[in-house]
């Protein structure tokens, strides 16, 4: 996330909580969020304000982004077999195992 993207993230937060964003705020937040994907950062803002009424801080963004990255793939993804696997019980079982499914 660059400075302009950090400013956009803070502007989004301001739309929810009415904060005034200064250049100092942008630089301070950027120092903590510079390795964060901008799309994930904005998603974290929305996730935060959809659950909480308190003011968002950089730690909230970092925590929500980390949580989003640790979510396992959807179970429906396990049903997507590559060509040649369907109909071969051993290949289907091996494919499920690569998805962390033991059945």
Can you tell me about this structure?
This protein is mostly helical. The protein has 2 domains: 3-69; 72-103, no CATH class. Helix content is 60%, strand content 0%. The protein has 5 helices and no strands. It has helices spanning 3-17, 23-33, 38-51, 58-69, 89-98. The chain is elongated and about 60 Å long. The N and C termini lie far apart (41 Å). The mean pLDDT is 87.
Task: Describe the structure in brief.
With 103 residues, this protein is mostly helical. The chain has helices at residues 3-17, 23-33, 38-51, 58-69, 89-98.
Short descriptors:
103 residues; mainly alpha; 2 domains; 5 helices; 60% helix
User: What is the tally of beta strands?
Assistant: 0
Average pLDDT reading:
87
The SSE order reads: HHHHH
> What does the largest sheet look like?
none
Helix proportion range: 55-70%
**Radius of gyration over alpha carbons?**
20 Å
Percent of residues in β-strands: under 5%
Low-confidence stretches: none
Q: Report the span from N to C terminus.
A: 41 Å
**How many helices does DSSP assign?**
5
- Total number of distinct structural domains: 2
Looking at how many chains there are and whether they match, the oligomeric state comes to single chain
List the helices and strands and how they pair.
Elements: H1 3-17, H2 23-33, H3 38-51, H4 58-69, H5 89-98
Helix pairs in contact: 1-2, 1-3, 3-4
